[in-house]
Amino acid sequence: CLVGSEMCIRDSTMTVDTITSSKQAIELEDKYGAHNYHPLPVVLAKGEGVHVWDVEGKKYYDFLSAYSAVNQGHCHPKIVGAMNSQAETLTLTSRAFYNDMLGKYEKFASELFGFDKLLPMNTGAEAVETALKLSRKWAYEVKGIAENEAQIIVCENNFHGRTTTIISFSNDPVARKNFGPYTDGFIKIEYDNLQALENALNSNKNIAAFLVEPIQGEAGVYVPSDGYLKAAKDLCVKHNVLFIADEVQTGIARTGRLLATCGDCSCVNKNCSGEPDVKADILILGKALSGGAYPVSAVLANDDIMNVIKPGNHGSTFGGNPIAASVAIAALEVVQEENLAENSYVLGEIFRSELSSFAKENDLVKSVRGKGLLNAILINDTEESSTAWDICMKLRDNGLLAKPTHGNIIRFAPPLVMNKEQLMDCISIIKKTISEFNN
Ligand code: PLP
Description:
Layout: H1 22-32, E1 44-48, E2 51-54, E3 59-62, H2 65-68, H3 77-87, H4 102-113, E4 117-121, H5 124-143, E5 151-155, H6 164-168, H7 173-176, E6 186-189, H8 194-203, E7 207-212, H9 228-238, E8 242-246, E9 282-285, E10 297-301, H10 303-306, H11 322-337, H12 340-361, E11 365-371, E12 374-379, H13 387-397, E13 400-401, E14 403-406, E15 409-412, H14 420-438
Parallel strand pairs: 3-13, 5-6, 5-7, 7-8, 8-9
Antiparallel strand pairs: 1-2, 2-3, 4-10, 9-10, 11-12, 12-15, 14-15
């Protein structure tokens, strides 16, 4: 390439644009980025705790937390400190060599969540893929299913990520269409339907696992009936089928417990009541495992399952890197030190009680549902309507950022470091915005 010649695609003094307005940033993304998202038109430039600021300096409450990744609040100093100090020491070794952070992290997280071992990955979808592969290998090598015959039961309206295998068992046409051919080996049943699970288990001897979200987040924060998860786990035990909990969104204190399927983990929340303990055979974590600072995900299981994985079976260049390990330790310590499960439980009760009363006197809000600080309001309109989007635009104007999960459902998931005064302020913004919208 002759720099400066017409043949050269790149000038030698190529510079990066300076962003001076939200409009400019949106135009750049629109022109140069793939259109695989439809963001709310707000351009964020800074975050701290429960707040974010746009390019023009306007301050907002973040009521989405990057889909429950920023549970510990934006730029938590302990997490950022751990990340910076590790970044100055050692960033990546690959798993060709050992590093001095990974074992510490694996021990800490395994003991915290009550499992023998952890397999480190980066994104939620990768961790889900890992869990699927792990359960299939277990089915062939331990359960004794004939090769290539294993089936995994999944739920309708699931969301587990975006890989080709994962979308193969999605029933969202937008996520699936024209991405085939799809991966075989999945049986889809209705969520929160024990009879459907029992029928599926009875009708096929080749079931390796049941993959389930303890609350269906992307589908619109669907909370299953009390006792569903425990009864589903019992059915899995009866049929020698692995119970896989995808806690990428519900985990790390989001629902008012360390895990929504709180087993014998050392849960810090004294308010743990209601749903009985359910110990997953395979636990999938992501998002808030790093407090949103870095892509960190993990699969946890006991030795009888995890030991089917041998060198060369599975891996990732970045999985278990020293930055990820130190960030995850710090992020989990913050959850314990700041009692985030308990705070999420207490504030979640207030949130639902306030908005349920509001729903009784406001025609636009049909209901509120959720657990801890993972909640949604159902808007009195059709799924195809733009009402939830229009309300989110008004919420933005009034200083609170949330996003619809469907045309008539708005998810509310603030950072768990929120205090009661801030929550009451947010509740009053939500009530005021919806009341104005009604008129
Ligand atoms: N599983 C669940 C339950 C999720 O909510 C998500 C993301 O929203 C994923 C998996 C995928 O995670 P990621 O986007 O990090 O791949």
